[in-house]
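Hi D.,

Good news: the full-assembly prediction came through. Inputs first.
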Amino acid sequence: MSKSILSSLLILLCTMLCSTAFAEISKVVTKGQARFTSTAPLEKIVGTAPVSGQFEVDFTKPKVITGMFEVPVAKMKTGNDMRDDHLRGDEWLNAKKCPKITFEAKKGKVTDFKAKDDKGITTIKADVEGVMTINCVAQPMLAKVIIKRKGNMSKVGSQFKVALADYNVAGKKGVVGEKVGKSIEIMLNLKGK
Amino acid sequence: MNTLIKLALVCFLVSFSVIGLWLSKGMHLATPQQIEKITKTTDDFGDVVETSTWVDNPDKLDIGLDIAGPVAGVLFGLGCLLIWRGRKTES
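Then the structure:
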């Protein structure tokens, strides 16, 4: 009796060890572009910024997605030098004190997973929970993410909105809501190995 | 009509023309010094990817309210001043 319990425990232990050993967590370093859009009654502003980061995921059995992405505030562009300067100023993104906008992905809930299709592309769709830090204010955030992998190339895409008020971005009095949208739509596209 | 009043009318005309130009160019608050050029490419995954780059705006008349406002305002003010001076001279 005790032998059978012992052997069952051994089998269980082996199974656990094997599953851990065969988990192929890939670390992907990516670079790309963030495109942000502010829609307000008086003006629509479109801007871009370089974005870089890395994430970790098991492309064979995706369960956990973690990572870190960052955008240098100084490199954000909107097509007007004076507006870019204002954007970096104390009343907006405060680039001197908070030079980077970051998103730390802490866990991802996979909503759809397609292992290698006929073109050899693996696709993971996930709701990634993490912490977004803008203007040195950290807030929990959920982002819908699509990750694709072909060979050793990977890409990440995401689209989400951030409310300026959540990050204490007040701007000049009367500007937010009139000339700048209360929330900003952000689209990310990154690629890497 | 004396010369000062004629000059004032020119100032008003240019001022309204500047505002008209601003209205016709899309009423931007800030002058679009650079414009976004979107390049569409098909990546290794077969997806169409849009990449934005900023290029100098070739349309030098594409002005925002940051330029149109002060220019039109100064010209309008100058026109008013010239009318006042012109009428004073006439009388």
